[in-house]
Amino acid sequence: MKPALRLMSGGYRCLLHLYPPAFRAEFVAEMDAVFEQALADAAGRGHRAVARLCARELGAWPAALGRQWIDSLQAGLGRRKGTTMEQESMVRDLGATQAGSARPDGSARPDGGGQPVPWPHVLMGTLALLVPGLALVSWLSLPTWWHLGLILGAYLFVLLGLLAGWIQGFARWSYAFLGYALIFALWLSSVSTPGLRLVGHTFGRHEVWGGRAWLGLAAVAVVALLWTRSLRPVSRFFTGIWRDWTRLSFALYGTAPFLIWASFDEVHSPYRLPFLVVSALCLAGGALAFMRARTTARRALSLLAGLSAAWLISTAALSAYWNGPRVPGHAPFSWWKTALPMGIAGIVVLALLLTPAALGLLRRGTQGRSAA
């Protein structure tokens, strides 16, 4: 096998390792063998056939991954005898009545610490940042239909993750999916994709998505309501924020991949590629630390650290770009003309990330008055 084909095959195996353990044990070997055979057949037809195969697999991968993790989470968090699905999720996620999350006097700790978060939850919370962040790297770096397929595939993964979170009663990991889904739909409503055929409609020249951009979120809401036949998960969404304000911060954090990508909007490829990849990894690392943290302070610090690292890297990269001879037709700018606006914007974004802390103060004040 040629080195390039071996590299593609190895990359496909890496993607397969992100599937749930039970699914890997049963299907991964067969999927790997089928892909290698398909890759060999495509190689015999030429480079374009190989490119189409890889683009098709990458485009379908986020949805398939999300579907398998939804099935895995449903199996792992299914109903116990005498316990509803929502109650089980509450016990696992908040752990407020467990021994590790109570004060010596027996009262529940407001930070919801104690039990470690299950690894499926940790993985889903991390992928909520990693998948969109890496998909956005492809924008204007690949042929139009390839990067559009990757980005829409990542959006579909986010919608499936949001649906799974809704069905399971909005555990902590699901909040980031909502943040990205909202900001992406808002952006998509003003985007034009001429020639794209969607649900029997072909977009014309300069025709924007408009209200169609919100159909995905509407579909998630309809399916979730039909599945649960209850508004209890919606109530749990707000109750979770009231008990742990960092959940709302995590929802805001979910918009970070898009914000970082937007700051590189006028930067040409391939200059921006490594910086966007590293920023996506920093944001995913912050989400991973957030999901593993057992106290409110550590969760807040995890989000601040992940976003600060990604923002500093982006600021340095943009300052160097606009200060150098990389932009045709433009004289180099002084580095501070980029660093200063980015610094101010970063302070605003970090401040917004901490704004939900006011809910924590309000909750403590309310509890204090109740106790008095």
Topology of this protein?
Blueprint: H1 3-16, H2 21-45, H3 47-76, H4 85-94, H5 119-136, H6 144-167, H7 175-188, E1 197-198, E2 201-202, H8 215-228, H9 232-243, H10 246-253, H11 256-263, H12 273-292, H13 296-322, H14 336-354, H15 357-371
Helix pairs in contact: 1-2, 2-3, 3-5, 3-6, 5-6, 5-7, 5-11, 5-12, 6-7, 6-8, 7-10, 10-13, 11-12, 12-13, 13-14
The chain-level structural class is: mainly alpha
In sequence order, what are the helices and strands, one letter per element? HHHHHHHEEHHHHHHHH
Estimate the helix proportion, in percent: 55-70%
Poorly predicted sequence stretches spanning 5 or more consecutive residues = 79-113
Mean pLDDT: 79
Tally of individual helices: 15
Number of strands: 2
